[in-house]
Design a protein that fits this description.
homodimer, 582 residues, 5-stranded mixed β-sheet, 29 strands, globular
Chain lengths: 582, 582
């Protein structure tokens, strides 16, 4: 492991501590330095009970798994930590840790650097103070990856993962303070302080609803989403796991590995000139779309998405199939290869890049329509959507549509990345962080049938004088399965009406009907129905049916899962009918 | 139209009349001969109100559609008619129509034969009597196809469609009696009386639960079904639409049409010797499996299947793909062709054969695994399962797996057959027989995710002394999507446990894991769980998840549809916990 690799990610861990108090809080008399703030929150009183500590989970294996689950892409962690905070406020916290005047010793950076293992003790510095976090290591939800930050400053990590810039995190840290850093070492730290890795992120449209600023995750307002069949790129939902990498298109290289005859290296121009350009209209959806509805049942871990972590665009680029054939793919490869792995240029402080994989048969199928896209809606890809090249895997969960693509590897195995192995999987409602076994579930690829109501909004008021109500929404299904019907109910699901489906913008020619199994784009739908005469309140419900006749489940609780993915129960909004004389 | 074509199917129609009284019953003063039995049933009194008649549906178009829906394969109609009758009793009814002595005129067969149109009147004979059914034609749920029987005897038709051998059908008919058939013509009729077209149907295993004898439709008891991963052919569910054809394997010919270079004709030996033999373990499911649960919500039309219209077998034969390539399929064909149509050798009295089609891409895909199967579970196909050759379309609704295959046609269009166009489609719960437009829904191909509990049976009693309960069942999904999890609840869906899945028989090696998208076979599952200490009754529920993470809907009513297909809500059984001292 390089030094750089060893330095990292203290930050993740706090999240679990901060949000899963109860299961961890038990008697643990051997503990010494207790996080007072924590205990106060927990017992609801003012005393700092030094014997009350949160405990290690019971099973080591489960612990590892829980950690893996938590790592969950930085965005997921961020969201969890930020659950009760506006993203905009996340970077504004400034707690004067040093304000606690101390009579503690002064250490040199050299001394701090010696403490980088559990044997030698694990020390870190933050804002001029020194902390011995040895005891915290095992309690950190990120597990022993906390050692990556050992012996150095926290600031570079916290700059990357803004979740830590919160008062309660600093309060936990303060419990571990053992001294001050020597003044000249503080100065040196300041001079090498890393810049904000998100400082070069692009500007975003102000209409977006931000779930997390760093990394950037945001969705458009639902009523705007359903205004366009092809979502304008500026309001297309953004789901970044890491800072947006700056890529020079002139020097961009795409590496294709794992095929006979050695690797292939392609420039952006190669990709544009050496392969036919294909255009596909495809809807992308985040696995966590509608997670907030699962959160309402019972808290889950992940960005608290509303119903708009889904959008539809026209993508253009080379077919992955064509590139793999050019790189030496042949029938022999299919005898041993089963997956195609992708790596992005986006990376964390340990130089770990974002990665994912898809099944080989999806990649190679003439009907799979997998693109190495360099255009979105007729323009070069925007920075947030993977400039200069991203993978577009129609019908497949957003997480496999790797952006800022740097490398393609044909392989016998799935991507070993965290996001493929220990995230983006579905579990039973009975599975919790103590029992989850990520190996027991397949990585999400195709998504299930989905629909939601974009208009009216939950809590809207309609006038009885209008005599009718118009309901709008979207519907989509994974795997190229075409949505063939959307049923809408105004009475909570007792009676239903069939909505009108649309495959294009109003007044324009609809998209041509897709061949079977290649319906990659959503349908917009609309229903105008008479207001039920007596109703004071409407519970409007929608459910879609795809051409495999899969239907959405009725309710959220039975599909609840600890990561809050695959939230596709009937969507419900409540609307008040106003009787007025005006 | 041949005379033979003109003769047919009086029979279907009664079904609708017999079961959809209310919407048809209105004032219709111009009517003359009223079906008294009918009126009696309707008004609940003893008087035969001659002015009360069932009316034509309001919209001509809807009427046609309703009829089309009703035709629904003869089995569906049969089941509807037989809903309150055991199938075994269907052929035992014998009402002495002639016992009503009449002073009506005597007609010759020659005279009867003149009445074969609405202009000339529509006459039929039955058991020596002559009936003028002109007025009934428009009321017959089968629509103007009733004219096929005009001018001749009903017996050949009623022999084919045993549903008519019921008292209420004969009572309706009696209202239209206009005379007696001349004695010598009666004798001649007897001498040419058609034999029972079902007389050469094979013997069946007595354990089967018969839903309809003619045509034969039956399912195994659920607890036996889940005893074997590969269902023994004898208890594999049987779903025939027509009599089982007798086919001489030596003279059997399979015709392949629609491809460049003229047609291809293959003998059974050709099929076995000229193409590689492929073996596929695939589950077949009737679209109407679990229809009885929809019937419990609100009556639907179709065989009242329990949960066992699904079975799993090892099929072997030539790949359809290989045969089509041999017959001249090439890339040019894909430019105009979209479907592959199949015709069976099973036919009705009008010589109409059973037919269906599948999308061309399913037929031609190397991963589609569509077989022209000549073996089932290592033996030649049994007569009930399509001897000598049937299509097996893995992952696709049973109705497209055409048996007794005679003809394959590559085509721009779907099969024009009733079963493709006007049956085996799904609709909203809001759609009824007056509003249904069969063109508005796609033909069912891939089926949605499914599971059911085979043990314990609904109403079973378990002893508290056993301390635990074992629940067993099956789970499957269409389109090659693998079932990845089955959740089981003992408390009606409040809490869940994950069942153990099996891909083979206990004690034997499981089937090898299928490639992605080619999981054609079901999973059996089992869960042994502690009895909840206080529970007097358990509501056991199961729901499956496939690898596209599609889930079953919670309840039946919101997926109810007029044909009772696609019944895949959570399966529920209620079990009583007995406290006893023994």
């Amino acid at each position: 492991m390089t030094h750089k690799k060893i330095n990292a990610m203290l930050l993740f861990r706090c999240c679990r501590c901060l949000t899963q108090f109860a299961p961890f809080l038990t008697q643990r008399p051997q503990a010494s330095a207790a996080p007072a703030w924590y205990a106060i929150r927990l017992v609801g009183g003012g005393s700092s009970n030094r014997d009350q500590r949160w405990e290690y989970p019971r099973h080591g294996r489960s612990w590892t798994q829980a950690v893996a689950g938590l790592l969950a892409g930085t965005g997921a962690v961020l969201a969890y930590g930020l659950h009760h905070h506006k993203a905009e406020e996340a970077n504004a916290v400034s707690v004067p840790v040093k304000a606690k005047t101390s009579q503690l010793p002064i250490f040199s950076q050299e001394e701090v650097t010696k403490h980088r293992t559990l044997q030698d003790g694990v020390w870190v510095t933050y804002d001029g103070a020194v902390y011995d976090i040895t005891e915290f290591v095992a309690m950190h939800p990120g597990g022993d990856k906390i050692l990556l930050a050992a012996g150095g400053a926290l600031e570079p990590f916290w700059a990357l993962y803004a979740v830590h810039n919160q008062e309660h995190v600093l309060n936990i840290l303060s419990e571990y303070k053992v001294g001050e850093l020597r003044a000249e070492d503080q100065k040196q730290q300041h001079s090498v302080a890393s810049s904000d890795p998100y400082s070069s992120d692009p500007e975003r449209h102000p209409v977006l609803r931000v779930n997390s600023l760093k990394p950037f995750n945001a969705e458009p307002p639902p009523e705007i989403l359903s205004d366009s069949y092809v979502t304008p790129s500026a309001i297309f939902f953004k789901r970044n796991h890491l800072p947006v990498p700056q890529v020079d298109p002139a020097s961009y290289e795409l590496h294709v590995d794992g095929l006979p005859g050695g690797g292939l290296k392609l420039s952006l121009e190669d990709l544009k000139n050496r392969f036919p350009k294909h255009t596909v209209t495809a809807t992308l959806q985040c696995a966590g779309n509608r997670r907030s509805e699962m959160n309402a049942v019972k808290q889950v871990k992940g960005l608290n998405w509303g119903i708009a972590a889904i959008s539809n665009a026209k993508w253009a680029g080379a077919r992955l199939r064509d590139v793999l054939l050019e790189a030496g793919y042949g029938p022999d490869v299919a005898l041993w290869a089963h997956h195609v792995q992708f790596e992005g240029l986006d990376k964390d402080v340990t130089e770990t890049t974002y990665g994912a994989s898809i099944p080989l048969n999806k990649a190679m199928s003439e009907e799979g329509d997998v693109l190495l896209a360099y255009e979105m809606n007729g323009e070069p890809l925007p920075a947030d959507h993977g400039f200069p090249v991203r993978v577009v895997v129609p019908g497949t969960v957003g997480a496999r549509n790797v952006k800022w693509l740097s490398k393609i590897t044909v392989s016998a195995d799935e991507s070993a990345s965290h996001w493929q192995q220990n995230d983006y999987k579905g579990f039973s409602p009975a599975t919790d962080w103590d029992t989850v076994n990520f190996k027991s579930a397949p990585a999400i690829q195709e998504l299930p049938v989905q629909s939601a109501i974009t208009v009216p909004a939950n809590g809207a008021v309609v006038s009885r004088a209008d005599e009718e109500v118009t309901v709008k929404g979207y519907a989509w299904s994974g795997g190229g399965r075409e949505v063939v019907r959307v049923d809408v109910s105004l009475d909570g699901g007792k009676t239903w009406q069939v909505a009108q489906l649309r495959s294009g913008d109003r007044g324009q020619a609809p998209e041509p009907s897709p061949p079977p199994g290649r319906a990659w784009a959503w349908k917009l739908w609309e229903l105008t129905a008479p207001l039920p005469p007596e109703a004071q309140q409407l519970e409007i419900v929608c459910k879609a049916v795809d051409n495999s006749y899969n239907m959405q489940p009725d309710t959220v609780a039975p599909i609840w899962n600890l990561r809050g993915v695959l939230s596709n129960a009937w969507h419900r909004v409540k609307v008040t009918v106003r009787d007025d004389e005006d």
